[in-house]
């Protein structure tokens, strides 16, 4: 995975329990940013939702090797709209 080349810690999780536990563990270990694939985010939606109101960790949704579902882009658009007052993207 290319993320390892840049020094990212990469964790593979395939079940909803694994995804939730990984996010919780990273949050407890003071990770500032957690990148989660859109596919994995669907397995732990409630956990991700809980961290949306927190400053850290910032959970960023990215496309998987299967391509994008548009979930991550929608999140960015919603955050920009909330910050600016309108969707400028």
From TrEMBL:
Gene Ontology MF terms in the entry: proton-transporting ATPase activity, rotational mechanism
Keyword annotations: Ion transport, Transport
Keyword Disulfide bond: no
InterPro entries, per the entry: ATPase_V1-cplx_f_g_su, ATPase_V1_fsu_sf
Domain of life of the source: Bacteria
Pfam families for the chain: ATP-synt_F (PF01990)
Similarity comment text for this entry: Belongs to the V-ATPase F subunit family.
Name of the protein in question: V-type ATP synthase subunit F
UniProt organism field: Enterococcus silesiacus
Taxonomic classification: Bacteria, Bacillati, Bacillota, Bacilli, Lactobacillales
